[in-house]
TrEMBL record:
Family according to the record: Belongs to the band 7/mec-2 family. HflK subfamily.
Region feature Disordered, mapped onto this chain: 1-34, 46-66
A Gene Ontology biological process term: proteolysis
Compositional bias per record (Basic and acidic residues), positions renumbered to this chain: 8-18
UniProt name for this protein: Protein HflK
SMART domains per record: PHB
CDD domains: SPFH_HflK
Length: 386
């Protein structure tokens, strides 16, 4: 039998789709009618009347429809709850988040980023962002070590580095951080003088607050890591701010004058040290020159003395000639007083006697001997009387 052939009992009056052939054309059933039929069957099944509304009404009497209706409502509620549970059983964690899974209120496990599953109504997930840099700002009046009051504003930046500790150990970790930050700031400001807080001590103050605050947080076990502490502003209270500003300006002027004086000292002192060092080196060089000259003269005198001891006459004449050479070396004319008390003077033209080279090249030993002989000759020719 072909697939589209109806069975024997339905071959004459009913097609494979369950429709009777009452003179109508062959074809598929109406889609809207099928949907309506199935909807009616589902409603009957949910209401507990599987055989139809009239038959169920006859069997159940006046109250027969209530148990079936209640059963259908309970079944619908269960289906809705199951759907909602399955929908809530899956969750997603971002790359910045960590999931703290609690089962029956107790810690069960840690979940990493991605698509995760939890048991509905049993597991509870706390999502903690471990990379977001959180910030807390505070401003208040503080008492310093020298019993002055300053207005300090501070900003704390921190991370929830330990997701489990941040979610479970402390009921309100951020509130605990705020209280600890206030306490740490007051402790550090109370150990410093007002001048340090207002001027150059802000960096040290911020570092001290950060270390102390981190120690407090570690004792609490809240899973927070302090990234930075910034002292944004530190100033005197409003009623006395003008007076303190004048004091600060005076101190700045004092520091400026000190810096100028230090710069001048840095310029003058090296120059003075250089000049002093130069004079010391010149004095040392002059001393070395004098000592060397003296030692050379002493060595020359000792050498001359040894020669004189060996040949006194020759050495004496040699010294005499060297002395005359030194005297007459640059002279062109010589005047001689022949005898003491006499008015006669003797004139010696050395330039002519030496051939005109007395002043240019100096007198040699031969020239000196010749001059000496000429001098003796002239003295003999013109004797001077008493």
């Amino acid at each position: 039998m072909a697939w589209n052939e109806p069975p024997d009992n339905q071959r004459n009056d009913q097609d494979p789709w369950g429709r009777r052939q009452n003179g109508k054309q062959d074809g598929p059933p109406d889609l809207d009618q099928l949907i309506g039929d199935w909807t009616k069957k589902i409603n009957q099944w949910l209401s507990g009347n599987k055989r139809g509304g009239n038959q169920g009404g006859n069997q159940g009497g006046s109250g027969g429809g209530q148990p079936g209706s209640a059963k259908g409502l309970w079944l619908a509620a269960v289906v809705v709850l199951l759907g909602a549970g399955l929908y809530n059983a899956f969750y997603t964690l971002d790359e910045q988040e960590r999931g703290v899974v609690l089962r029956f209120g107790n810690f069960y496990k840690m979940e990493m980023p991605g698509l995760r599953f939890k048991l509905p109504l049993i597991d509870q997930v706390e999502k903690v962002n471990v990379t977001n840099l959180r910030s807390y700002a505070y401003q208040g009046l503080m008492l310093t070590e020298d019993d002055n009051i300053v207005d300090v504003s501070m900003t704390v930046q921190y991370l929830a580095s330990d997701a489990r500790a941040f979610a479970l150990n402390v009921r309100s970790p951020e509130r605990s951080l705020e209280d600890a930050a206030n306490a740490a700031l007051r402790h550090e400001v109370g150990s410093l003088a007002m001048d340090q807080v207002l001027t150059a001590g802000r960096t040290a103050l911020a570092d001290g607050v950060r270390q102390r605050l981190q120690s407090y947080i570690d004792e609490y076990g809240s899973g927070i890591t302090i990234s930075a502490v910034n002292i944004r502003e530190a100033q005197a209270p409003n009623p006395v701010r003008d007076a303190f500003d004048d004091v600060i300006r005076a101190r700045e002027d004092e520091q400026r004058v000190i810096n100028q004086a230090q710069a001048y000292a840095n310029q003058v002192i090296p120059e003075a040290r250089g000049a002093a060092q130069r004079q010391l080196e010149e004095a040392a060089a002059y001393r070395a020159q004098l000592v060397s000259t003296a030692e050379g003269d002493a060595a020359r005198f000792l050498s001359l003395y040894n020669e004189y001891a060996q040949a006194p006459e020759v050495t004496r004449e040699r010294l005499y000639l060297e002395t005359l050479s030194a005297i007459y070396g640059d002279a062109n004319k010589v005047l001689l007083d022949v005898r003491e008390g006499s008015n006669n003077m003797m004139y010696l033209p050395l330039d002519r006697i030496a051939g005109g080279n007395a002043g240019a090249a100096g007198l040699t030993d031969t020239d000196l001997r010749r001059i000496t002989d000429e001098l003796e000759r002239r003295i003999r020719q013109n004797p001077t009387r008493n």
